[in-house]
């Protein structure tokens, strides 16, 4: 990875991204490590943000990194269900998924998975789409009876992911899994990404969404936080609402062998590259607290 010459780096890196000097410092740091990237929110529906995200993943691939993408699709699913007059109910932020809904969810996520694969191929990246129908890697059990076909991962076929990465392809994973009866289940994308990162013992899990990161009581971004500090902020209600499950998921991942979990704002230009390859970073890095 570090054998890339300066002129090669200049060609690969975007002009408005991290500098060549900064990038050189970080190339060795992630050598042969897995970088799991969960993408959701407006990045997946805003064409401009989607284009930048795809370009940034392609840059990481060309630098010799091992990125693995897990994508959401909630907004697209909502639109499709509304068109079909299928009402959505949510329990604690998770969509209640009956027989009709799971078929729509699966169709939307598979179609979207192909779009991401094709967009990366347009950037000269070899890619493999992973869904419930092709190369399924996630075995699930039902989360609970009330949610219907919503699953929790019980097993991840990491050997399939490693084989794909070994031939320099980018795995693009839809948050779908199969139970022991080959029934398709929808999985919360953060949960799927966390499970994959833990099973791969990834160096980083990057969660790209529509939030800046973890904010302090003055609404300023906290660049880095450990699990002890995060729990205190939850107790003080400084971390509140929808950020609580997001941060708790990050804490769970960070305490299970992943060196760092980062919440970053996908609405910011090249936030993925600035977080991994610059001194200033671009979100909140969450690590396990060590005594």
Secondary structure elements and pairings:
Layout: H1 6-12, H2 20-27, E1 34-39, H3 47-62, E2 66-71, H4 74-83, E3 90-91, E4 94-95, H5 99-122, E5 127-130, E6 138-142, E7 151-156, H6 158-166, E8 170-173, E9 176-178, E10 184-186, H7 189-200, E11 204-209, E12 224-226, H8 227-235, H9 243-254, E13 260-265, H10 271-277, E14 283-287
Parallel strand pairs: 1-2, 1-11, 2-8, 5-8, 11-13, 12-14
Antiparallel strand pairs: 3-4, 6-7, 9-10, 13-14
Kindly describe this structure.
It contains ten helices and 14 strands. It has about 290 residues and is α/β, with parallel strands linked by helices. The strands form four sheets. Strands 5-8-2-1-11-13-14-12 form an eight-stranded mixed beta sheet, sandwiched between helices. A two-stranded antiparallel sheet has the order 3-4. A two-stranded antiparallel ribbon has the order 6-7. Strand 1 (about 35-40), helix 3 and strand 2 form a beta-alpha-beta unit. The model has no long low-confidence stretch (mean pLDDT about 90).
- Helicity level: 25-40%
| Total of helices | 10
| Protein structure class | alpha/beta
**What is the terminal separation in angstroms?**
34 Å
Low-confidence stretches: none
Order of helices and strands: HHEHEHEEHEEEHEEEHEEHHEHE
Mean pLDDT: 92
Strand order of the largest sheet: 5-8-2-1-11-13-14-12
Overall number of strands: 14
Task: Give the gist of this structure.
The chain has 291 residues and is an alpha/beta fold. 39% of the residues lie in helices and 21% in strands. A hairpin with an 8-residue loop joins strand 6 and strand 7.
